[in-house]
Amino acid sequence: MTPAGALLAAALATPLAFVALCLLPGFRRRVFDLLPLAPLPALVAAVAAPGGSLLLAPAPMRLVLALDEPGAMLLGGAALLWAAAGLYARTYMATDPTRIGFAVWWLLTLAGSLGVFIVADMTSFYLMFSLVSLAAYGLVAHEGTPRAESASLIYMALAVLGEAFLLLGFVLLATAGPTGNPLIADAVASLPASPWRDATLALLILGFGLKMGLVPLHVWMPLAHPVAPMPASAVLSGIIVKAGVIGLVRFLPFDQPAADWGTALIVLGLFTAYYGVAIGITQSHPKTVLAYSTVSQMGLVAAIIGAGLELGAAGVSRLAAYYALHHMLVKGALFMGVGVMAATGARHRTLALGVMAVMALSLAGLPLTSGALAKYAAKGPLGDGLAGTLAALSAAGSALLMLHFLRLVAKTAPVRADAVAGWGLRAPWLATAAASLFAGWMLFAPAIGYAPASALAPAALWDATWPLLLGGLLAFGLARSGIGLPKIPEGDVAALAMCALPAVRRIGDGAERLDAALRRWPVAGLALMAIVLILGATLGTAR
Amino acid sequence: MGMATTTGPLLVLAVVVPVIGMLALLVMPFLGIRRPATVALAVVAVGVAIASAIGIDLVRSKEAIVYVVGGWAPPLGLQLRADGLSGVMMAMAALVIAAVALYARPQFDMAEDAPGGRRAFAFWSLLMGLWSALNLVFLGEDLFNLFVALELLTFAAVPLVCLDGKAETIEAALRYLVFALIGSALYLLGTAILYGQYGTLDIGTLHGRASANLATHAAIALMIGGLMAKAALFPLHLWLPPAHAGAPAPASAVLSALVVKAPFFIILRLWFDVLPEPPSEAAARVLALLGAAAILVCSVVALRQRRLKLMIAYSTVAQIGYLFLMFILIEPGVAPWTTIGWTGGMLQLISHALAKAAMFLAAGLIAEALGHDRIADLAGAGRTVPVSVFAFGLAGLSLMGLPPSGGFIAKLLLLNAAILSGAWWVAIVISVGGLLAAAYVARVLKRAMAAPATAIETRAVAREREWPALGLALCAVALGFVPLQPLDMLAIGRGALP
């Protein structure tokens, strides 16, 4: 076992070992305070082990860990945010009586979310993806309120639906490709020639798109993210949705141009980017607005990936990971910031609000922030055509949405004027915000291949600035015009889907009635005779 | 014709040792032993050792084990034969019965003259008889011999249903008995036709001799129809839910995990070993359609149940449906046991057996702790019997087909086979069935993990009574580490079928 391989194993094993150790009462009492330590081996691995790999079990099981560049970026960002959010939770949830149970769900989700970035074979990927999807249920449901109950139910239903899409997609992929449990890369290489190429791609995009929140499978996000405790919202919106990003990055065949599916993904992604903004600005809870912003931003990532698929450009995977890393840290900082703001009195708000403004506008590409760098890099694959223009314009939408968010978050100050959020909340928040800037600049050259100075050229700065100005103008105009925005319920189309419930109930009633009828003696006897006759007749027909 | 192998007597022991156990239970008072569980557990230990020895010998020799009864080779005499498939079935049965016996010991450990003593005696005797019958089904090579085994199985299983003597369980048992008897009659009719036609009921002999004609097809249709009734394939499941839900938990576990698998096993033998090749695709489609209907309808009905044990029973009817999908997924022209469809179907059978037994055992303790098994009022179970709720969840993982679990690998292989054979509708049914299973398992878990709204009265359950269910559930999970390819073990001795 190489040192790099050992690090990868430790990254995955540490959170799981924490869960296992919870069987010991002594450890269980302390586990909540130890949460920030669980992702640290992964953080070390992300820095020290790119390119490393480890064979956990040889063929035909073939369980393999491997860390490529996109994986390393996301692994590092995720580990950092998990650690910061774990630190934040120590203060935020210090008096929560059920925090031990929460810690177990947290650790399981953590293990799965880091796992998806480092496993290289299909079965392990599915295992890790299921782990992160299903364990996150515990984070969503934690508060136990009726709202959390219904949100977690919808979350679970959609997560399981996504699993079903993916399983079918994976089976199609594996059936066309090498037998047994192939490496993801080998299976994907066989995809362009597969007889089920289109069905496979559709299922993969459905399954991963659901996790990323692509419309119309985004409904769980604005329901689930606001009801979770603050640190859980930060990791849900920051990290868990990236399982979908890494899925698309790993499973789409970038080696050969696929114009049809690439274009479809661009259209879906851009539509989602605008849709998230349009619904988001009607919302009145800061956390719900942030959730819709995640929907919008993930739409943009999908569009970037779609552009790479259209062109057959494998480099887009690094770019998508870079964009996702930026969003991960910024969105994590924003969610933690909502909690900080709520605990900060009027006298100390200015500075905090300033940090929040930088983070929020980073999502719209504020110059010098990681957002500006990410958007600058995204221009490459999206080009100057219609898609590129729409993507650039969507930054104005993000600016509009984030200004709306800032206005909402500025209003939340019910506490005493001289109240100050403790360092237990402020330190992880500020660290995450700083990390977003630091990681953005550090990784710009290695990930994208541009010199950092190119993002500071006047043209680039102007490209980043005008959407902000436009967004500001829109926000100003909207406030001035006095147009009342409609009140759209959280989860928008989910409310429509609820109208279908009576129909679903009727199916259940029908099945019960059918069962009751079939379980009557004369019917069962008749069925038995009929089956024997039909079997006899069909056995005689030739193959 | 099969020559007896040196380890052949092991097969006789596998059938006879449980019978010796039954006799020992009868004469126990004369030997100064007061508790039937002591005798039964000793027999279980020996039985597990025999099943292990058979398994090890199969793996080592890579050939079927054969025993010729009385030295008379078929078609004149009888033979017992264990190939890889039988070996795996016997190991599965031994594992489930061992866990059930450990679980049932505190419940059925009273001396014969103590209150409930007759019931304890009956439980252990019936369990022994049932085990012997199961092993005979897995080893028998003669269709009439198999009929006897099936009857023995039914007569051991039916009283288990009404062990508590309540009116409604007696009614459920009678229902079960009558429908099983109809199934037996059809099976017997089929064997009579085959015997009249070919003058033998030895599967090995029929394999070469049976030709595709009306008599053969009529006989096989009658036999498969009868076996379906005994396996409770939808829509012939009228007897299963009340019987499996009404029996005491350890009995339910054995009934749902093992007893319904025996008739299915014989259907497999008829289909692949007796029917002249190639089996008709239209007939395979009939079986698959019924299986699909079972999955869809009974999963929805399971979702609507108010009682935990009824929900688990309906889940059994749904899961049996998956087994019948197999026939359409095995492409003609190749040896079936080398296909992924075969391995997928068998893994489904085994992982369902382990998971379902674990579920019934866990449900029994949940009901004991709470005093009821109403799903709506399960809140608090997670605190009272945490290990059982955890075992229920792990077993549920396998039913839902989520990794890592045997159910996941089975589902993956079946999906794979469905796509390879172009049966898209089967792939969709498997996927939808998984979603419905997730819904009915999650519904129970959600309630069980919740904190009760008001203080509830619970009865303490000794922690060690929760282990057998957990052990079985962990075995179902461990099956998830079987590689995704045709399993060599299942092919041992199949190719050499005379």
Notes on the protein architecture:
The complex is a heterodimer of chains A (543) and B (498). Chain A is mostly helical and 543 residues long. Chain A is built from 23 helices and 2 strands. Chain A folds into 2 domains: 3-495, no CATH class; 501-539. Chain A is 75% helix and 2% strand. Chain A has a two-stranded antiparallel ribbon. Chain B is mostly helical and 498 residues long. Chain B has 20 helices and 2 strands. The radius of gyration of chain B is 22 Å and the shape is globular. The interface between A and B is large, with 50 and 60 residues. Chain B: Residues 141-435 form the NADH:quinone oxidoreductase/Mrp antiporter transmembrane domain. Chain B: Its main location: membrane. Chain B: Keywords: Cell membrane, Membrane, Transmembrane, Transmembrane helix. Chain B: It is found in: Cell membrane; Membrane.
Low-confidence segments of chain A: none
Structural class by sheet pairing and helices of chain A = mainly alpha
Number of domains of chain A: 2
For the largest interface in this structure, which chains are involved and how many residues does each contribute?
Answer: A-B, 50 and 60 residues
Count every helix of chain A, treating DSSP H or I runs of 4 or more residues as helices.
Answer: 23
Q: What's the number of extended β-strand segments of chain B? A: 2
Distance N to C terminus of chain A: 53 Å
Strand content of chain A: under 5%
Uncertain ranges of chain B: none
Order of helices and strands of chain A: HHHEEHHHHHHHHHHHHHHHHHHHH
Count of DSSP strands of chain A: 2
The secondary-structure class of chain B comes to mainly alpha
Main sheet of chain A: which strands, in order across? 1-2
The end-to-end span of chain B amounts to 6 Å
Number of domains of chain B: 3
- How much is the average pLDDT of chain A? 90
Subcellular location (chain B): Cell membrane; Membrane
Pfam families (chain B): Proton_antipo_M (PF00361)
Transmembrane segments (chain B): 12-31, 38-56, 84-104, 120-138, 144-164, 176-198, 218-240, 252-272, 284-303, 310-330, 350-371, 383-402, 422-445, 466-484
Protein name (chain B): NADH-quinone oxidoreductase subunit J
